[in-house]
Design goal:
The complex is a heterodimer of chains A (143) and B (124). Chain A is mainly alpha-helical. Chain A contains six helices and no strands. The chains are: A mainly alpha (143), B mainly alpha (124).
């Protein structure tokens, strides 16, 4: 599967992602973890927690709309895998992120920046299993 | 005000995800497909984000507490096995949670999939 290398857009992406995470730490003193936000917006711990998660969730979901309002074009989204694979993968992502209490945003971006020993182990772990899975799908099973 | 700030943080984060790259599930297999056509975009996204959080967090932590809360709360993770599993799912679906939420906001894809449940070729 070939996609174009987009260095400048990717750098801008990363800067904004990091800035969003820093803003949350500055204002509310929390790690920006997408899985926690999603589950926290659905499963009510208390009103205060849920409102915070819903606000974060709403902000994230409004982002493509903001880009559309500014540029006049919706961000491109090509989904090269089947609905079945998205569903299966989605369940595994949710399960894994819950068991590991974090995902790419929480562990990969927030905790890794603290250079915690844990995240120095966890991040390469899911990077490697993702790479092996992609290798198996593309080159062993065939895409 | 506090929740408005959370909304803003979500919006900035989501915009970063949505501009390019990370939200697009085609980019994820491309990044991990080192044996095939490797596209390092995702690495740049993560590196840039890490540089910002690395310095940004340290600046923020000079304060005794956050703007709207009494203290900073930094959790610790539990199971490495869970994250290994997470990677497998990420490799299969091409979506991680952070990318899937802003993707919901584009609306179109999920509706198209309901009508025509077939994969689309990568356009980027």
């Amino acid at each position: 599967m070939e996609t174009a290398f987009t260095p400048f857009a990717s750098l801008a992406d990363g800067l904004l992602i990091g800035l969003g995470a820093v803003l949350l730490m500055l204002g509310l003193g929390r790690i920006f973890g997408a899985t926690g936000i999603l589950s926290g917006a659905i499963f009510v711990e208390n009103r205060e927690e849920m409102t915070r998660h819903l606000a974060l969730f709403l902000g994230m979901i409004l982002a493509p709309g903001l880009i559309f309002a500014v540029t006049g074009a919706m961000p491109a989204l090509a989904v090269p895998v089947s609905t079945a694979m998205i569903s299966i993968g989605g369940v595994i992502v949710g399960l894994g992120a819950s068991l590991g209490s974090g995902c790419t945003s929480g562990h990969g971006v927030c905790c890794l920046s603290r250079l915690s020993v844990r995240s120095l182990v966890t991040v390469p772990t899911f990077m490697v299993t993702a790479a092996i899975t992609v290798y198996l799908i593309l080159h062993v099973i065939g895409g | 005000m506090k929740h408005l700030f959370a909304l803003l943080a979500g919006l900035v984060f989501g915009t970063g995800i949505a501009i390019s790259g990370k939200m697009d599930p085609a980019k994820v297999p491309s990044f991990f497909d080192i044996a095939g056509t490797w596209d390092p975009s995702l690495m740049l996204v993560m590196s840039a984000a890490l540089v910002v959080t690395f310095f940004g967090y340290r600046l923020v932590w000079r304060r005794s507490k956050p703007l709207f809360e009494q203290r900073f709360q930094v959790p610790s993770s539990k199971l490495i096995g869970g994250l290994a599993l997470f990677g497998v799912g990420w490799g299969i679906a091409g979506f991680c949670t952070g990318a899937a939420i802003p993707a919901l906001g584009t609306g179109g894809f999920f509706i198209r999939r309901l009508i025509h449940p077939t994969p689309e070729p990568a356009t980027t």
